[in-house]
Amino acid sequence: MRKAAVNTPISVAHRVKSARMFSGLSRKSFSEKAGLSIATLRSWEEPGDGRRGITSKGAARFIKALNKLDVFCSSDWILRGEGTGPRLLTPSPLAFSEEPALWSEEESVLRDLQSFKQNNPDPILLLVADSAMAPIYLKGEYVGGSKKVGVGIEGMVGCDCIIETAAGIFVRRLGQRIADDTYVLIALNREAEDISCHARVLSAAEVVWRRSRRRIRNGTR
To answer: For residues 134 and 187, is the Cβ–Cβ distance under 8 A?
Structure first.
């Protein structure tokens, strides 16, 4: 998540866009599925030129729209960077279908991954391979984001990111830059082998999308 102190109109708009992208949908698809106009979404994601940005009332509408798409997020996070950022809603155990799936689990995952790739710029997807970021990010989940390099990386300090280093690609919280392209990388799991380390970061992508391997039956809550 972004730092609570970052509350410029641009950072608020970035949080709106991040929450929308967490659903894995383009602005057009989100508009159609959530019942918000494209013009409204654009005014929230791109303030300026006569667009005032999101208001408290607008944030409440946006949160309801996210909930329709199985994404939870607090209005405090949208408006002030405080509270809970985008997370998948936790379904009831009854939400998982006992009936035969119309397509296999592997096909379902591939469909969602392909949708994310098509609807997001410079996409990067990763299967979480360790427990260093538990309990927020669990081993076996898929995560996605839009890759940034060079000076674009520093703008994600304080965020949970897909990090690419010479040693590999993994999810960590991006800490402060300490020299050139070298950053502090933080694991949230206090039992992790390396809670904090530093490494040269080749690219980073804020996590804005997640996909577990279990498919929820459509229409079930």
So the answer is: no
pTM beyond 0.90: no
Among the listed residues 176, 173, 169, 180, the one whose alpha carbon sits nearest the alpha carbon of residue 203: 169
Q: Which of 134, 135, 207, 195 is nearest to 169 (CA)?
A: 207
Q: 76-120, pLDDT tens digit by residue?
A: 888 887 777 777 664 433 333 343 444 455 666 677 777 778 777
Nearest Cα to 159, choosing from 133, 197, 126, 122?
133
DSSP state of 211: E
Provide the 10 A C-beta neighbour count for residue 162: 22
How far apart are the C-alpha atoms of 144 and 139, rounded to whole Å? 14
- How many helices (H) and strands (E) the chain has is answered by 6, 10
Query: Beta partners for 193?
Result: none
Amino acid (1-letter code) at residue 216:
I
Q: Is 47 left (phi over 0), alpha (psi -120 to 50) or beta?
A: beta
Question: In the beta sheet, which residues pair with residue 205?
Answer: 162
Residue 199 structure tokens: 């490494």
Which residue from 59, 62, 66, 50 is spatially nearest to 80, judged by alpha carbons?
Answer: 59
What would you measure as the largest C-alpha separation in the chain, in angstroms?
Answer: 54
- Structure tokens, 187: 């694991």
